[in-house]
Amino acid sequence: MSAEFKNEVFSSYNPNPVRLCDSCGEKPALVRTMLDSLSGRTVRMFKCKCGQQTWADNKE
Ligand SMILES: [Zn+2]
């Protein structure tokens, strides 16, 4: 395995980066994961310690 190939793998292996909180810039904690049966996607809910809630789709 070449070094270039490793870099490619690592840079692409980040399926669901957590967005930082819009309000305070902290990293929100994952509080629950739900399967959306209509779209077949996993929806994750994050909640920051400041109270801000964020939803994220897992498009796989
Ligand atoms: Zn926050």
Report on this structure.
The structure is a single chain. The protein is α+β, with helices and mostly antiparallel strands. It has one domain: Single Sheet (N-terminal domain of TfIIb), CATH 2.20.25. 17% of the residues lie in helices and 35% in strands. The protein contains one helix and three strands; from the N terminus they run H-E-E-E. It has one helix at residues 3-12, and strands at 29-36, 41-47, 53-58. A hairpin with a 5-residue loop joins strand 2 (41-47) and strand 3 (53-58). The chain starts with a helix and ends with a strand. The structure holds zinc ion. Zinc ion binds at residues 21, 23-24, 26, 48, 50, 52.
What attributes characterize this protein structure?
60 residues, binds zinc ion, single chain, alpha+beta
Q: Which helices and strands occur, and which strands form pairs?
A:
Layout: H1 3-12, E1 29-36, E2 41-47, E3 53-58
Antiparallel strand pairs: 1-2, 2-3
Bound molecules: zinc ion.
Zinc ion is lined by residues 21, 23-24, 26, 48, 50, 52.
The chain-level structural class is alpha+beta
Helix and strand pattern? HEEE
- Helix percentage range: 10-25%
Number of helices: 1
**What is the CATH architecture assignment?**
Single Sheet
Radius of gyration: 15 Å
Strand fraction: 35-45%
Number of strands: 3
| Average pLDDT metric | 80
**Global outline:** flat
Q: Biggest sheet, strands in spatial order?
A: 1-2-3
Low-confidence runs: none
- Total discrete domains: 1
**Ligand names:** zinc ion
Spatial gap, N to C terminus: 27 Å
- Please report the first level of CATH classification, the CATH class: Mainly Beta
Largest sheet: 3 strands, antiparallel
